[in-house]
Amino acid sequence: MADASKSLGYHPFQAPSSNASEVYTNFEGQTLGACEYCGHCERFGCEANAKASPNVCILPALLADSKFELRTHAQVKELVYDKAARKVTAVRYVDTRSGEEYEQPAGIVLLTSYVFGNVQHMLLAGIGEPYDHATGKGVVGKNYAYQFEAGANAFFEDKELNPYWGSAGMGTVIDDFNGESFDHGGLGFFGGGYIMGNTAGAPPIAGRTVPHGTPEWGSEWKRATVKWYYHAARFNTQGSVYANRDNYMDLDPTYKDALGRPLIRLTYNPPDNEFKMSAYLLQKLEGVIKAMNPTHYDMHPRPKTFTVVPYQSTHNTGGTMMGADPKGSVVNRYLQAWDAHNLFVQGASVFPQQHGYNPTGTVGALALIGIAGHQENNELGIVARCRKRERDAIHDRHADVGEEKIEASALTLQHVERFATVTGSLDVVTNHGQPARAHRAQCLFVFGDQNFGHQRDPA
Ligand SMILES: Cc1cc2nc3c(=O)[nH]c(=O)nc-3n(C[C@H](O)[C@H](O)[C@H](O)COP(=O)(O)OP(=O)(O)OC[C@H]3O[C@@H](n4cnc5c(N)ncnc54)[C@H](O)[C@@H]3O)c2cc1C
Ligand code: SF4
Fold first, then answer.
1. Looking at 40, 315, 415, 432, which residue is catalytic?
2. What's the distance, Cα to Cα, between the start and end of the chain in Å?
3. Whole-prediction pTM value?
4. Nearest CA owner, ligand 1 atom 48
């Protein structure tokens, strides 16, 4: 794929991923094993402790701290909200083994229950004004978006592609058609996305890629599976989605969860802009696939009507979006709820828009900014690259703004560095104090030496 992309003038690179390629001891003293490219990475635990997941990178260190307590099987039922004091005073949770309910008083509450849980908890507790689709008023549940995916399969009769091994993020990416990286003149859409070919492994059932038109059952399907198992390659495009007033989350009037709480309800269909953007990415991908000279290929455009049935990605965003104005957002830039000063919301629910990248790097960076935020009193626009020599260079570059501000930034950088070490990422770029570029700052979170966006123009 890299050669084919280069032949078309694109700039392919190896996808960044959070697997340790060799034994590695992180900032917390936790040792990750070396990845074995076992082919069972996505959706499974790691037998080699090579994935940069919390159970390997941070939990053992926390458990050794006497101030930390981990309560498993605790399902949070509700936030106890004192509206007059604009404060969450406690969290009620259920021990799922005994069914017993507990109330845990709290000074500070971090709401980290993924996009849908975050919105559900805010709506149930009555924190912030719920979005009303009919009037357009309110904020909680608004701005829902879902990274826009479409892909292709290609079959190479004469090439053995060893699909049984690989790690989830292993692949080649082209980022030439993301965000502002290309000229949109005459294209008729905004936004963009990336194109990827990866070898994530081929788990039983899910890893049996056959050409379109093959029966889904029976001996013909078996023959096709045997014929193509070693020779099939999968490609994907994932792009941005702009928030739209018709796409939102609210509490379901009918259906309830096991704890008797209304389920979160999703109302979503991407606007035409995203279909045009996706068609453009697919056209570029098709060009790359043709240049690879396959025996056969199938393009998979996104169905016009959204369905949750096939797994697409877990890249949901919005619902408790961050912003500078309480009228248009749910949390401030430090992820602090406008209507509950001791509540901090973490996760992609705080994204105001769905940028054209996978969310988790940005989620991590934002969590860090949220935590470090109260220590940072500066409005200094700063591009921070987390290698020590570059940190020193930042000090030099901003020497004229005063030592106090530099120290404040350095403090934040320590957190950023710590995070970068924990997750295995090496470069993090933040862009504080430049709200006009907030979206861009999200895109500037990069892993390893790989570039997921605008690193070429970090300023
Ligand atoms: C198969 C798969 C592949 C993915 N690949 C990528 C990728 O390549 N790149 C990428 O950027 N992202 C990827 N994602 C998305 C990524 O996993 C999420 O963006 C990320 O985990 C979100 O982090 P979070 O902390 O907001 O939520 P989560 O990681 O979902 O953590 C939320 C936690 O809250 C707990 N919780 C929820 N409700 C309650 C409650 N009521 N009480 C107590 N606990 C609760 C949950 O058990 C969970 O542990 C992938 C996801 C999946 C499933
Ligand atoms: S491919 Fe994934 S699950 Fe397998 S060893 Fe590597 S990190 Fe672990």
1. 315
2. 31
3. 0.84
4. 113
